[in-house]
Amino acid sequence: MNKIIILTGSVRPGRFNIQPARWIYEIAHKRKDAESELVDLQKVNLPFLDEPVPPSQNKYSKDHTKEWSQKVNETDGFVFVTPEYNHSLSPVLKNAIDYLFFEWHYKPVVFVSYGSLAGGTRAVEHLRSIAAEIRMYDLREQIMFPNYWDNLDENGIYQFTEEHEQLANRMLDSLIFWSQVMKDARAKLSNPQE
Ligand SMILES: Cc1cc2nc3c(=O)[nH]c(=O)nc-3n(C[C@H](O)[C@H](O)[C@H](O)COP(=O)(O)O)c2cc1C
Predict the structure, then answer these.
(1) What is the pLDDT of residues 120-136, one digit of tens each?
(2) Which runs of consecutive H residues, i.e. helices, occur in 54-155?
(3) Domain total of the chain
(4) Is 194 inside any structural domain?
(5) Does 144 contact ligand 1 (Cβ within 6 A)?
(6) Ligand 1 centroid to 76 CA: how many Å?
(7) Is residue 193 part of a domain?
(8) Which helix H or strand E contains 35, and what residues bound it?
């Protein structure tokens, strides 16, 4: 069974991020074709990158790096749930990515984003170029919530629609399909670190 991680991209108090992250996790969790986990960077709680050796040399010294490495290593596909901060991704998400290298290789990623009019798209465009460097495969599928604050109820809860859910399932169809294809491909590599 393929393993999918839904990764939060904000750890701020009062963050919106956890709402779309929980929403997409609930949809993924109902499916029988993959095992899903919501991984919250607030709980992972990585410090700013504190390894003396770059991750491409695979010599981790800290327990938090080894644990994060194991978590990403055992995962076949990712949903990055990202805010847009000053037209880019959040530092906490970039930091979590930068900690590792080979663990991301040859694995697909899709995006849930939100923000003002652009719906977080500028952050996703930056994530797509980062994905290339760590040999991830960014799929075309993306769900955006532009001006998300216009669709909050009186308790601050976002009103997800049936249409959003359909889009989410189509996005997950693609992610899970490519997770399997790339898992098979990874198994054929003589040196998975190339
Ligand atoms: C440091 C910072 C920079 C921001 N820059 C942008 C931006 O460039 N584009 C945008 O659409 N929203 C921007 N916003 C507004 C965010 O879309 C909004 O605050 C959102 O709730 C942030 O996600 P979070 O609540 O999950 O942390 C910014 C917010 C912060 C805190």
Answers:
(1) 999 999 999 999 999 99
(2) 63-73, 91-98, 121-133
(3) 1
(4) no
(5) no
(6) 29
(7) no
(8) strand 35-39
Under the phi-then-psi rule, with left for phi > 0, alpha for psi from -120 to 50, and beta for the rest, what region is 119?
left
Q: Which ligand 1 atom sits closest to the C-alpha of 117? A: 11
Taking the complete model, does pTM exceed 0.85, yes or no?
yes
Is the CB of 22 within 6 Å of ligand 1?
Answer: no
In a domain, 128, yes or no: yes
Q: How many CB atoms lie within 10 A of CB 108?
A: 25
Torsion angle of the four alpha carbons 54, 60, 62, 64, in this order, in degrees rounded to the nearest 10: 90
Residues 6+ apart with CB under 8 A from 193: 58, 102, 105
Range of the domain at 16: 3-188
- Tens of pLDDT, residue by residue over 132-171, are 999 999 999 999 999 999 999 999 999 999 999 999 999 9
